[in-house]
Amino acid sequence: MKIVLTLLIFITFFTACVDKNGFDNFHFSLEQEQWENNFISSKIEDKIGFQGTISAVYLNKVFPQKYKENEYFYIALYLKGGKQLLLYTLNSNNSLSVQELTNNNEFQNFMHSSNKWNRYFLVEFAEQKDIDVLSFEAKNETLSSSTMIFKKDE
């Protein structure tokens, strides 16, 4: 009984006096919060198995002032086989442009990690009018990613 009472007093003392918790130290800007909410990763596979990873961010929701006209995605790509070309589709429509970025690009401070094995791209698609769900895929003749679903408007 003494042990239980002693533990109860210590627990009450240490938890009742706390005015902060672990989440008080996380201060996200609006862009960082939107980045996390619009960040999706997927495996890239072929018939044999795992061949790489792709991470995509829907930039129109992260930076709505800058990316208004069309649909823009930031891509971080790792492929085991090196520099294979992938075709990017949004709701089964091919991309309008794919621009390869350097490792030190304007979006790098939002990424969870950076390394010399990843390749980074800014991918532009035609505006998807009257569509609230965006289905993004990366593929070529032998490789394909899972479909990544982004919500256009909330």
Summarize the structure.
With 154 residues, this protein is α+β, with helices and mostly antiparallel strands. It has helices spanning 2-16, 30-37, 59-62, and strands at residues 39-45, 50-58, 71-79, 87-90, 93-94, 97-101, 119-125, 133-139, 144-145, 148-151. Strands 6-7-3-2-1-9 form a 6-stranded antiparallel beta sheet.
Would you tell me the structural class of the helices and strands?
alpha+beta
Number of helices: 3
Biggest sheet record: 6 strands, antiparallel
Number of strands: 10
C-alpha termini separation? 55 Å
Radius of gyration: 22 Å
Uncertain spans, ≥5 residues at pLDDT below 50?
Answer: none
- Mean pLDDT metric: 84
**Level of helix content?**
10-25%
Summarize the helix and strand pattern as letters. Answer: HHEEHEEEEEEEE
Q: What shape does the CA trace take?
A: elongated
Number of domains: 1
Strand content: 35-45%
What does this structure look like?
The protein is an alpha+beta fold. It has one domain (2-151). Helices cover 18% and strands 36% of the residues. The chain has helices at residues 2-16, 30-37, 59-62, and strands at residues 39-45, 50-58, 71-79, 87-90, 93-94, 97-101, 119-125, 133-139, 144-145, 148-151. The strands form two sheets. A six-stranded antiparallel beta sheet has the order 6-7-3-2-1-9. Strands 5-4-8-10 form a four-stranded antiparallel beta sheet, with no helix packed on it. The longest helix is centred in the first third of the chain and has 15 residues, at 2-16. The protein is elongated and about 70 Å long. The termini are far apart. The model has no long low-confidence stretch (mean pLDDT 84).
